[in-house]
Amino acid sequence: MSKKQRRKIAVEKPLAESDVPVQPEAAPLGFGFDEMLGELEAIITEAEGRLAQEARTM
pLDDT digits over 5-40, tens only? Predict the structure, then answer.
């Protein structure tokens, strides 16, 4: 018998409840695309203002 024929096949054991990973609860969907876009635009506006002020002081 060759080695390939003698190779053992892995047997899958069923997982116990304690072995199953717990998935965190999903975040609420209250913060949508429009809100996120608005926040990003506000961040960009603040950053541009700081850069302009920094350029004036140098």
Answer: 666 666 666 656 566 666 666 655 566 888 899 999
Quick one: how far is CA 12 from the chain centroid? 30
Distance, CA of 32 to CA of 40 (rounded, Å): 12
One-letter-per-residue 3-state SS of the chain: CCHHHHCCCCCCCCCCHHHCCCCCCCCCCCCCHHHHHHHHHHHHHHHHHHHHHHHHHC
Q: What share of the chain is helix, strand, coil (3-state, %, to 5)?
A: 55, 0, 45
pTM metric for this prediction: 0.46
